[in-house]
Design brief:
The protein is of the alpha/beta class. The chain is 35% helix and 20% strand. It contains 11 helices and 12 strands. α1 packs across α11 and α10 packs across α11. The chain is globular, with a radius of gyration of 19 Å. InterPro entries: Aminoacid_DH-like_N_sf, NAD(P)-bd_dom_sf, SDH_C, Shikimate_DH, Shikimate_DH-bd_N, Shikimate_DH_fam. Belongs to the shikimate dehydrogenase family.
C-alpha cells in the first residue's frame, strides 16, 4: 500500500469533467509497480478557473499533469514553452513543470497511432474523416498526416469554428490535404471513408445511449472501413456498435489512453521505459470490476 507523505511528488490530470478519467488508475498502478513516491490525482478545473489553477500548481511545485477536454487549446498561452510537436498540433495534453517553467507537449499522436500499427494498409490511398474540431481532433489530423492519408476531412456543425480550424493549419509544416466540411454532407462523405474517427465526447459516460451519427449516416460506411472512437468509457460506445453492425472494424480509445499516458509518464520520470502492460491491465481490470 502506498503511503502519502510530505515528500510525495505530485502528478495529475486537469479537465472538466474529469471524474470519468481512468488516467489515475493506470498511472498510479505504474507508479506503485516502480516503487516510486509519487501520486497522480484528477483535478476538476472549470474553464474560467484555468489560469488560477496553473498559478496554483506552480506554488505547490507539481511535477507535471495531463490536460483533457476542454483545456487542450486554452492552456497554450499559459505555458512558458511549447514543444514543436505540440505547436504543430496546436494543442497540449501533457505539461511538465521544470525550473519554474511549464512546458507543454502532445503525446496524443503516439497514443492514437499505436492501435493502427497492427493494420497493414497503404494509407496513401485512404480517406480519413474526423468528427469534431477540438483539441483531440488536432492531434488526429497530425497523426493522419503522418500515416500519409490521401485526404483528411474534419466535420463539424459550427461554420465559423470550422473555418478557423482550417485556417490554423495554413502555416503547418505537415504535408496534408485537409478539408473541413459541414455535418450536412456526412452521408455522402462517409460512403468514401476508410478511417472514421470520433473525437467528440458524444457517447461518453454517462450519456452512453448517444452517438455522433444516426443509423442512416453510419449505414453508408463501407464494409471493412475502420471506425475509431477516442472514448474509452464505455469501451463499446454506441458509435462503435453501429459501425460493427455495418461490417466496419471497431477500435476503442483504451489503447490510445494507455500509450499516450505511458509516453507522458516517461517524460515526467525521465525514463526510457515504463510498465505499459501494468497500466493496460489496471485499466482493463477496473472496467470489468470497477475496482
Amino acid at each position: 500500500m502506498q503511503h502519502i507523505t510530505g515528500k510525495t511528488k505530485l502528478l495529475g490530470i486537469i479537465g472538466h469533467p474529469v471524474e470519468h478519467s481512468l488516467s489515475p488508475i493506470m498511472q498510479n498502478a505504474a507508479i506503485n509497480h516502480l516503487g516510486l513516491d509519487y501520486i497522480y490525482i484528477p483535478f476538476p478545473i472549470e474553464p474560467q478557473n484555468l489560469q488560477t489553477a496553473i498559478q496554483g500548481f506552480a506554488t505547490i511545485d507539481i511535477v507535471g499533469f495531463n490536460v483533457t477536454i476542454p483545456h487542450k487549446q486554452a492552456i497554450l498561452p499559459l505555458l512558458s514553452h511549447i514543444e514543436p510537436l505540440a505547436q504543430t498540433v496546436g494543442a497540449v495534453n501533457t505539461v511538465t513543470y521544470k525550473n519554474n517553467q511549464f512546458i507543454g507537449t502532445n503525446t496524443d499522436i503516439i497514443g492514437f497511432l499505436a492501435p493502427l500499427q497492427t493494420y497493414q494498409q497503404d494509407w496513401s490511398q485512404k480517406t480519413a474523416v474526423i468528427l469534431g474540431n477540438g483539441g483531440a481532433a488536432r492531434a488526429v489530423v497530425s497523426a493522419s498526416a503522418q500515416l500519409g492519408c490521401k485526404e483528411i476531412y474534419v466535420v463539424g456543425r459550427n461554420e465559423q469554428k470550422l473555418k478557423e480550424f482550417h485556417n490554423s493549419w495554413n502555416n503547418s509544416s505537415l504535408a496534408l490535404n485537409l478539408q473541413t466540411s459541414n455535418w450536412d454532407i456526412l452521408p455522402n462523405l462517409i460512403a468514401q471513408t476508410d478511417l472514421l474517427i470520433n473525437t467528440t465526447p458524444i457517447g461518453m459516460y454517462p450519456k452512453i445511449d448517444e452517438s455522433p451519427l444516426s443509423v442512416e449516416e453510419i449505414a453508408q460506411l463501407p464494409k471493412g472501413a475502420i471506425a475509431y472512437d477516442l472514448i474509452y468509457t464505455p469501451r463499446q460506445t454506441k458509435f462503435l456498435q453501429q459501425a460493427e453492425q455495418v461490417g466496419a472494424i471497431a477500435i476503442d480509445g483504451l489503447e490510445m489512453l494507455v500509450q499516450q499516458g505511458a509516453a507522458a509518464l516517461k517524460i515526467w520520470l525521465q525514463r526510457e521505459t515504463v510498465p505499459v502492460d501494468v497500466m493496460r491491465h489496471a485499466v482493463e481490470e477496473y472496467l470489468v470490476t470497477g475496482m
